[in-house]
Amino acid sequence: MSDKKMKPAAKKAPKKAPASARKSHARKHVAKAQVKATHLPYEEIHFVDTTKPVWNYSRFTPEDLQNLHEGTLYRGYELFGSHSMEVLKTPGYYFAVWAPNASSVSVKGNFNDWKNHEYELYPRLDHSGIWEGFIPHFAKGEVYKYHIVGFQGVQLDKGDPYALFWEKRPNTASISWGIDDYAWNDAHWMKHREKHNNLDAPWNVYEVHLGSWQRPNRYDEESYNSYQQIAERLVPYVKDLGFTHLELMPVMEHPYDGSWGYQGTGYFAPTSRFGTPQEFMALIDACHEAGIGVILDWVPSHFPYDMHGLFMFDGTHTYEYADMRKGYHPDWNSYIFNYKRAEVRSFLISSARFWFDKYHIDGIRVDAVSSMLKLNYSRNEGQWEPNEMGGDGNLEAIQFIKDMNEMVFRDFTGVQTIAEEATDWPGVSKPTYADGLGFGMKWMMGWMHDTLKYFKKDPIFRQFQQDSFSFSMMYYYDENFMLPLSHDEVVHGKSPMIYKMPGDEWQKFANLRALYAYMFMHPGGKLLFMGNEFGSTAEWNHKSELPWELLQYDPHSKLRDCVRDLLHLAKDEPALHKHQFEPSWFEWVEMNRRAECVMAFKRKGEKASQDILVVLNMTPVVRNDVPIYVNGKGKWKEILNTDDEKYWGTGDTHNHEVRSKLIDKHDKRYELLLNLPPLSVIILK
Question: What is the CATH classification number for the domain harbouring 265?
């Protein structure tokens, strides 16, 4: 036997792997290298199989999923929806949609002749309910929908809840898009906007419905100005009049014009009626360059039953409450978001954040807050169920509102949230740490109702209604109020503002000038709906445009001149906005001349020389040498008179020199003798 070691037996050569497996193995390693190059954790990619139309690809981290299921994923728009990107150096679009009860989700559109099941998304295996995938070479501007096979096999074609752009109605598909390529020009505004949007700033808000402010053809409801044309016309108009903010009735995509945008389907997309998302950004940019803040109406309270929208999204009550005692809104024939569901809260708060983050807006006005707070809102006994504490508050909606407000004020400086809330719910505009809802401001619906009730009265009866006129100051400091004369007051048979006023034509205009003067001199933010500024003689009609031809007539053009001067006064005089939510800066001066309907109040400045005195004569009788008693300064000057001839007043009664007499030297108390024109407000400084 040889001393040589025996050579070990040769190993059996392994079988060569099939070519497809070798490619798959190589792709997996390439995918890993590609992800590392883009600084994304590898576990975000499950597997990239380039042999299929849809590549199995994910962008969600474990933290994202945890936040989604806890209701705290506030950047959902960065993950859900469709996003242009590259995978393995291949351009395309990544899709992600939440459909927890679906058995199949596919993407369909013009790109594949609307065939079902050809581009199937992948369900995550973590029971998150997310379907996702990457479609290589998918182009920007493609229309698409999700074909969902849902509960009990129901088949649905749904638009993308997170779509950035939609087809113009009556078409209902989403459009693949991107918005990060817009170059903003509002850096100066963004840096300094806090001084424009804080509670000490003037809030003169012009409420606008973009489709009907102006039209190329007023008789054609399909005739629209583009976002660019709106910017060219609307922004200079708003700036000239002296409005500080523009509030847009809902611009989020909606299928039905008659809903005015309040029945929305696109919570992340401006309507395509007027152009692209970038063109809407340019409109906001133009506002900011002109020094005008932008507020958007936002509707997290309900949504319509259009089958391409959120209703029964995966064949079940995905976004709405399943119990129709909570999930159906009888007033608007629509459905109520399920605020208890974490994924729905993440969706809604992401929507609110999106408009601040991507569109640079300065505030949101939240619609129909009362309907969210109350389980028994518009419901009779037996049609609602008390909460777990036995009360009528919707506890999960209340918490959602607080979470939303906390997010906004935490993540963005110099912005506001405004509640349309019509009840006596406490603390609407108080911080959440003080057990409030956390809004910055609240619409003062009580002021609106009481003031209109007063002004509608024949002047001979106003002496008996003075308490309704002055009642607002009894509770004004309970909240940070905005005084609205909104679109809701000039529709549905309520008549335009000018025809709410009593008397002949001259008296109607005199009354309306006095109403606006009282409004803009009252503490708080102010909101005036388009057309009110020149006394539109028709109820607002979303199918037409404002009756601009009225401006050829003096009563209307001079009313607008009066509104312009009031707006600039409210903006320029510090006493009319600084400390406007603090009680010590307002003083009733005269409330005892009830039979004459003469009232007066003072808005106090930080210096006595800044004080503003407002005197109202609410009857058509001229009153001379009316004594008004004030403390502080003895010299006063009339700076605005709503009966001035330049406002289509008589021009007969002025106070060119205000007669003043010191009657108490210790208290610096003076008697002013004033001449008061009929149905008028005079403003002195």
Answer: 3.20.20.80
| pLDDT tens sequence across 620-668 | 999 999 999 999 888 999 999 999 999 999 999 999 999 999 998 888 8
Catalytic residue list: 367, 420
Confirm whether 320 is domain-assigned. Answer: no
Q: What residues contact 572, with CB distance under 8 A and at least 6 apart? A: none
CATH number, domain of 652, equals: 2.60.40.1180
Give the confidence band of 327 by pLDDT, cuts at 50, 70, 90. Answer: very high
DSSP H stretches of helix in 112-243: 187-192, 194-197, 210-213, 227-241
Closest CA to 506 of 547, 558, 454, 550: 558
Residue with tokens 């903003």: 184
> How many C-beta atoms surround the C-beta of residue 12 within 10 A?
6
In the chain, the amino acid numbered 178 is G
Which of 175, 190, 223 terminates a domain? The answer is 175
Tell me, yes or no, whether 476 and 601 share the same domain.
Answer: no
- Indicate the Cα dihedral angle 383, 389, 393, 396, nearest 10°: -110
Q: Is the pLDDT of residue 10 over 80?
A: no
SS3 call for 237: helix
Q: What is the CATH number of the domain that holds 95?
A: 2.60.40.10
Q: What is the DSSP annotation of 378-429?
A: T--TTSS---TTSSSB-HHHHHHHHHHHHHHHHH-SS-EEEE---S--TTTT
pLDDT tops 70 at residue 138: yes
Asked whether residue 467 falls in the same domain as residue 415, the answer is yes
Q: Which domain holds residue 74?
A: 21-175
Domains held by the chain: number = 3
Is the CB of residue 439 less than 8 Å from the CB of residue 366? yes
The average pLDDT across 355-364 equals: 98
User: Above pLDDT 70, what percent of the chain?
Assistant: 93
Q: Identify the pLDDT of residue 633.
A: 82
pLDDT tens digits for 406-439?
Answer: 999 999 999 999 999 999 999 999 999 999 999 9
What sign for the dihedral angle of Cα 73, 77, 80, 86? negative
H or E element at residue 451: helix 445-456
